[in-house]
Amino acid sequence: MKNRCFVATILCFLSVTVVPAQDYNALQKLALVFAQVAAGGEYESVVNITNRGTTPYIGNLNLYRAAGQRWNPLVNGNAITNGVTPVSVGPGATTTFRITRSGTVQVGFATITKPPSNENELTSFLDGTLTYYIKSGGVLADSIGVPPSSRIYLTTIPFDDFNTIALALANASYTQATVKLTLFSETNARVDTLTLSLQPNQHLPQYLGQFFPAVKMTKGRLEIQSDPPVPGTALTDIGGQFSSLPLLPSAKLYNFTTSGFGFQVLSGDVSIWIDGPSLQGYLILLKADGNPTHQTLYLTGLVFNGTAVIYIVDMNDSKVDVSNFAEQVFFSQFSLSMQTIEGSFTHWAFNPSRVADEGRFILTAIN
Predict the structure, then answer these.
(1) CATH no. of 10-15+252-365
(2) Where are the domains of the chain?
(3) 196 with 204: CB under 8 angstroms?
(4) What predicted TM-score, i.e. pTM, was given to this entire model?
């Protein structure tokens, strides 16, 4: 890998990024998900969206609750049916959806999507926020703002009070999702693990004490891992005062080795984190043909429907002509839940264009 650089070509990405209808894990900026919406009682939720594109955004606000049932609260004071209300936002415009209901509080989740007839229109894009408003005796007592929900492959929530953490998960896809929740103490001892199967459009909001009713602890962390990724929202509830918690992608660490190369055998360490379909990380080359070496390289790539394509970038070598080299690792079966992942490695050389080396790339998880 010495003196080689990443060259991103459109064709490389197109070969692995065919997007099926309404896949919320791939359609970033074309679809939004809010994994927790509350309405009724003392609660109401307000969604604000802005169209950052150059043409109108035409789509639907979809509301679900519990095991995927369509949810029909009031939207901007109007009754809706089948959990759907139309969305139309002009270029640069901002639109508000106030979600309320009479009676006791109910919770669900929301998606904003384009219809199948318009889903490949790529000139209108959404940014959005959600704010919860909580009243007491008719007077505003608290408000919490949250961004669109993160798609969780692997994330960590550190906490200093186990009983204050609230988590909402929403499987906004057409396939079942397997979600693993693992609790660790503040000294990194594994406390408990819970594996959940979320059906399509299923919504699951609970406090950590409800997920783990037998656990008694204070400080520690929760690790969440999901295949396929699911949107989530996390909050703290301290004396009835709420705060939002970011669900940021966590790094997964691996040892790597190569095999089948004609010129050298490589080994070292890899770290990977995934945000939506985007993958980033580092590769530390420790040995080449058994000889100690040390070179830090950057990783960038894409994960979609269990397929990963990763490009290796030497951003520290200003002398490299980026038109001369490209390196790619391709995994036809990729999941952060797998202990061992094996894929193909290709090194392209240009001027003249040719495949210079090919082989196998093997990752073995170490955390």
Answers:
(1) 2.40.128.120
(2) 10-15+252-365, 32-146, 150-245
(3) yes
(4) 0.86
